[in-house]
Amino acid sequence: MNEETKALTETIANRLRTARAATGLSLKQLSDKTQGRLTKSRISNYEQGLRRLRIESAEILAQALGNVTTAHLLCLDEGELRLNDEEQRLLEVYRSADELGRATIMGVADHEYRLIAGRPRRGRPRGRAASRAA
Question: With a threshold of 0.85, does the pTM exceed it?
């Protein structure tokens, strides 16, 4: 992970931790407010910067917390991190896709990220990649 990515992950972690502290919720209580979609361990990992918060999880957490937006948690509310046209289009395509389409998009993104980051992905492939691997 390069220095810029580390710094962004740390900022996201701090924003999540601060938002949770402002609500007075424990990790368990916040997990419960997500209807179990995010475990307290996963939320803790996000707050410690051990895992990178993804859009879907940020949306779930923002709704559960009620005091922040998804954009704020992901640092998308700052000028330097605004989405360009191509990134915005990708987000629109992802949001309009069905479950298989989303899994395929994430599979491609995970593959590209692994190539850049030089680290293997844990777990089984999702979507069409899973059917090809079987």
Answer: no
